[in-house]
Amino acid sequence: MDSARYLLILAACLAVTAPLEFALGARVYRRPRRLVATLLPVVAVFAAWDIAATARGDWWFDERYVIGIRLLGLPVEEWLFFVVVPLCALLTFEAVGVTTRRRSSTVEAARGR
Is this structure's pTM higher than 0.90? Predict the structure, then answer.
């Protein structure tokens, strides 16, 4: 079970934020080009950073908490982290924006504007 811990944490992050797409209409998954354009620079920068840091020995990944599959020296969980965490942040950001716009519209309508 320990070897799946990192994956379980990422899955939990997605489970908590994925409903924002549907419940609040965040519209992140419905705009795949925009999503990819947002994620690519994040993945590229942080992957390069991690690859360099692990190659220098600045940090490492405890084998007890990863499943053992590596790409360019990084555990697959780390690659997923570069996608999942920004995706969750984006879902949250968009959901807050939708909620704020709705609240503003409601307040303006109540004022008779």
Answer: no
